[in-house]
Amino acid sequence: MFETLPGFRDFPPEACSRRNHLFRVFRTVARAFDFKEYDAPILEPLDLYVEKSGAEIVGQLFHFMDKGDRPVALRPELTPSLARMVAAQGNSLPKPIKWFNLGEHFRYERPQKGRGRSFYQFNADLLGEINVSADAELIGLLVAIFETLGMSSNDFRIRLSDRATWVSLLNGLGVSEQALPAVLNAIDKSGRRKPEQTMESLNEAIPDQGESLWQEIQNIKKIDSLDALAKRLGTLGSEADALIHQWEEMLSFLSAHGAKEYISIDLSIVRGLAYYTGFVYEAFEASGEGRALAGGGRYDHLVQKLSGNVDIPACGFAIGDMTLSDCLESKGLLPNYVLAPDLYLVCGEEQKKSGISLVSVARKGGFSTSYSFKMVGFGKQFKEAGKSGARYALILGTEEADSKRVKVKDLRTGAEEVISQNSLVEKLEEFDATGGITT
Ligand code: HAM
């Protein structure tokens, strides 16, 4: 017996219809925000991720040499492909660019609850706009998606932080530009590691200052309000004023989107990806338990890094399907889709072929229709019709066939009506509109 590889999932129809429910909501709400769907390759040059995504993701890559001796990787995330695509079209794309994607991603992580080696992400990104209203538009979209899925402020929270604020504070503590990526990476991991490990990483980045830096970082990580932030930034003068102004702008735009009630200011978020430059956020189940449902932020220099010359500011986020469906399931918010046909044909052996022709008419008219492939008696066919969950049985015996008619039985009410075969679709639409066949 073969099994799926660890961390990979099969999607039998039930699971697939649940996944499609999420996808439908993602697409509908993204379109309401006027985001356009795009796609990119699943296999990319390995170099696209090295240095651009940060050490953590690079360590989790599925990568190999292809038959042309090219180092390639299955995409662990979409942002570098998007930046590449936008950079290639340079300044010819009308701005702002508001694009979304639904696709599979691969990371060689230890499989655990909410974490797989293959998972789906909904990515939404807005490029070409430096104003914070773009960041707020994305958080507005994230909130609208979660609300459409049935979640309220009792169910999820978005923890909001700002890399620019972190960079100013760290500069103020004497951390050089060069040491910043390693220090930010250590801060990102600090929530999941022992303090000694974090101090060791900080000492590697800034020799002999790991311990004192760690004390300061711990205090900054605890900042959870604008007041506390303003107090901490106080020493930085006009730089502080500009940062606080950005925060205020962000929060008032979020209010306008109806998203403010979901926001917690939380400087403990810095994000693991190397390219973020501004506001960053992660969404969690309200209790804070479990892995993030979504994460994102501003990444103003990635397009330029990949293109060398095209400079386009950008921000975006991704929602993962695994943590989200676990979360919705635990709250009873994942509908159980019944994958039933609308109609089931029940016919005599002689009428099988004319029955299939009738089935074709119903299908072309938009009614999902099944029938038994084996020649079995009427009783057994009715049983199968019941098992299939169909709403109506189309009954075609000698009498109906001879008079070019068909009997439609409402399997919910038991009521029947004999109709002309010519008016099948029209009558079925009528039954649907009036809630079934009544006697
Ligand atoms: P990320 O935080 O690495 O961000 O991933 C976003 C979401 O994808 C996570 O919150 C989680 O729900 C899901 N996810 C990540 N890894 C796994 C995994 N191994 N198994 C299951 N789910 C997972 C990014 O990927 C950024 N590229 C998002 C972004 C778009 N930033 C700007 N634009």
What would your notes on this structure say?
- There is one protein chain.
- This protein has about 450 residues and is of the alpha+beta class.
- β9 (about 280-285) and β10 (about 295-300) form a beta hairpin.
- α4 runs parallel beside α10 and α6 runs antiparallel to α7.
- The protein folds into two domains: about 15-330, Bira Bifunctional Protein, Domain 2 (BirA Bifunctional Protein, domain 2), CATH 3.30.930.10; about 345-435, 3-Layer(aba) Sandwich (Rossmann fold).
- The strands form three sheets. An eight-stranded mixed beta sheet has the order 1-5-6-11-10-9-7-8.
- The protein has helices spanning about 15-30, 55-60, 80-90, 130-150, 165-170, 180-190, 195-205, 210-220, 225-235, 240-255, 300-305, 320-330, 350-365, 380-390, 400, 425-435, and strands spanning about 35, 45, 65, 70-75, 95-105, 120-125, 155-160, 265, 280-285, 295-300, 315-320, 345, 370, 390-395, 405-410, 415-420.
- Helices cover about 40% and strands about 20% of the residues.
- Histidyl-adenosine monophosphate binds near residues 116, 123, 294 and 295.
- The site of histidyl-adenosine monophosphate has 22 residues, from β6, β10, β11 and α12.
